[in-house]
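Re: the 235-residue chain
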Amino acid sequence: MRAGKISIWIAGLFVAVTTVYLLLGRSALLDVEEVKVYGLHHVTLEEVQRQLSFQAGDPLLSVDGDRTSDELERIPWIKSAEIARSWRGLVEVEVSEHVAIALVMTEPQQWALVSTDGAVLTRGLTSPPELPRISGVRAAGVPGSYLARDSAALLALLNAMPSELSRNFSSIRREADGDIVGTLGSSQEVIFGDDERLAAKIIALSAVIEHLEEENRTVNRIDVAVPEVPVVRNG
């Protein structure tokens, strides 16, 4: 009997606490007082606010962190978003944006920014920033979509490069025979060959460029398709 009374008492206490929690959470005492957003660089605060399912004055318990994250991640530039609530009525939104790494054509003379993981970040730009242009692959889709698989090796190549090296490339393309070829800002061509051993090819390329700079030499073509035996030539 005593055990039964204790169980009933615990159950009653649980119901009471839950009721108080729900009533307070949906009362003016625990409203959303302020929303702070961090990590914005390309996305505007107005874009974020349009995607939020709550605003100042709403009950704090109406803030669904998972739902809000999903809504914010529909914005093409936003890679992830974390939501934190405090009982002071503050909701903090920590945004992580994609990093643009290259350009891919969407239609003739228009290039879209794409991220390190192949997310399409913008519509076609007629005056895009100075980033490597990926070509010989399927066109980029609408913002928020992802590049087709034929871009994967070219993105992997750029991602594996040190930033100072990737910035030196004006373009990287897939040739008709399947080989990958890049063009440096100095108009030098770099032959990477097939999709295999990309890391080794990058190491070989870096070593060749360093050697050429030390000797103050200029060549037209650097072939690292066989990374153990890089070849340089003019013409």
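Confidence is low (pLDDT under 50) at residues 13-21.
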